[in-house]
Design goal:
Layout (H helix, E strand, L loop, with lengths): L2 E2 L8 E5 L2 H7 L6 E2 H7 L3 H4 L10 E5 L1 H6 L3 H22 L5 E5 L7 E3 L5 E4 L8 E2 L1 H6 L7 E3 L9 E4 L4
Parallel strand pairs: 1-9, 2-5, 3-4, 4-5
Antiparallel strand pairs: 2-10, 6-7, 7-8, 9-10
């Protein structure tokens, strides 16, 4: 998978980060939105979000995706991810004309994101379904040939998250 070491993910595109240092680069804990707030804002961005709360009006950081996925069966989680969450992502991208970052904060979830040798990205479900995975690539970015890039900060040897310029 391609690697990203610059800061573009902090200003545009869609990211899924699990490293606290990466999260601290873009927001304070009090600036994080809940997933519920994100989903309620779809189509009403000006009412709910006249100014982006993080990174100097360049980013929205959202928490709760991991917990929400864990509450659902794998089949229901995949459907919800592909319908509700993807709709919110597309709506955000459209409203902000890809000139802002939507960042999903997934604390301590590095081990739950799996990347295959062919750059397919999957999510390991939570108990009691921990032997199952969700196909993030197919569900969220439709196997677009511009796969996400691994985010690296500082001189870390471990990725801090994934970045995708634009999903469709």
């Amino acid at each position: 998978m391609k690697q990203l070491s610059d800061t573009v993910w902090q200003r545009q595109g869609i990211s899924w980060i699990w490293d606290e240092n990466a999260r601290n680069l873009v927001c304070d804990a009090g600036e994080i939105w809940s997933l519920r707030q994100l989903l309620m804002s779809v189509g009403k961005w000006n009412s709910f979000l006249p100014v982006l709360p993080s990174n100097g009006d360049n980013a929205l950081v959202v928490a709760g995706l991991d917990g929400s996925l864990d509450l659902l069966s794998p089949a229901d989680a995949e459907n919800w991810l592909g319908d509700e969450v993807k709709e919110a992502v597309l709506s955000f991208q459209s409203h902000f004309d890809n000139q802002a970052a939507l960042i999903f904060w997934l604390p301590d979830c590095a081990s739950r994101v799996r990347i295959s040798a062919t750059d397919e990205v999957s999510w390991v479900c939570g108990a009691p379904h921990s032997t199952k995975t969700l196909d993030f690539g197919r569900v969220l970015w439709g196997e677009a040939r511009e796969y996400p890039k691994e985010i690296f900060i500082d001189d870390s040897k471990k990725p801090a998250g994934l970045y995708h310029r634009r999903i469709s």
